[in-house]
Task: structure prediction
Amino acid sequence: MNGATPILINDCRVLIIDDNEHSRHLIGSILAAANIPIQEFAGDGLEGLAKVSSFEPDIIVLDIMMPRMDGLEFLNHLRRNPNWGTIPVLVQTALGSPEDRNRIYQAGATDMLTKPISAGELIMRVRTHLENRLLTRSYQNRLRLEAEINAARQMQEALLPPLALLEEIRLRTSIRIDSHFETSSELGGDYWGVHDLAEDQLGIFTVDFSGHGVGAALNTFRLHAVMSNLRPHDDDPAAYLAALNNQLKPLLPSGQFATIFYGIINTRKNSLIYSAAGSPFPLIGRQGSADIKAHDAGGLPLAMKKDAAYENRHVDFPPGSFLFLYSDALIETAVTDGAVLDEDDLKALLWKSMETEPEAAALERLTGKFHEMMTGSLDDDLTVVLARRETIY
Result:
């Protein structure tokens, strides 16, 4: 899905078809002097068709009056092939009547030069048609790349937990999970999910891979495959991160890594046990209280070192508690006056979003306010996840 390297005019291929050897080499010399040196020659239309197939020209300079197969017949054959239909053909001919010119254009010529050829006009016409062809090719490449990126983005989003699963979890555990996943102009490496571990246990995680583009997106699929085959360790997220790290390290290109938060909410024990590997600090609080605390999320990112060790951290998490997770785009994107959100800013934004009814729209209010504060566009994927233990009366 990488864009092709741009082609310059002096990299373009010119096929010159003329039965007159002197004319062929004269045209070739004129174009070579104009820094258009990649050329191939043919002495008639039949040979020209073979050269089109093997040489794959970007433009054809064509004579009309030739033996075996003349220019008109060559054009008819050329335009019947869908692979060659857009190759510009510059016809050079002594035929100048309106009827002759009409026949030539109807056969498929793009442009015409009247003999004797002017060197300046030849160079100008060839350059113009090559520039148009390169612009068209660049536009088509961009459309194809955008389509591939959109397809990859949709595949990434398909990895996220479906709403039906989140609702099933809420009904069974009274843990409500809301999320917002927003892609930037590039593909990114954000990923989040849940593990339905047991009747009273729920695993929740957020991941952010280093870098942007196709490589970061591919890494999310690599991690998804690893996590699909690796069962989380009950009450021991640190052991799970250690196992993930060792399986992920040989899969990632050198220098690439992932930050991750992995927590296990236990509704029977009213606890949250989590382990982290360099992720943004999680915010934990109680509904109805502005006392929101930032918790440590230090740890070596995944895939940086084999056999890395991770630490479990324990937090009380009774009914009414909430856990707020997010990707670094939330704290690294410029907002008012070019600053970024610090810990206090983020706490205030979260509290203001949660104190307003309805609570279910808290995340929507938060992301809406964040977009109002932004001074530019997102340079990275934005992921925010809010997990709340609903109070049961």
Observations:
- The chain has a mean pLDDT of 90.
- The chain is about 40% helix and 20% strand.
- The chain has two domains: 9-149, 159-389.
- The longest helix spans residues 119-158.
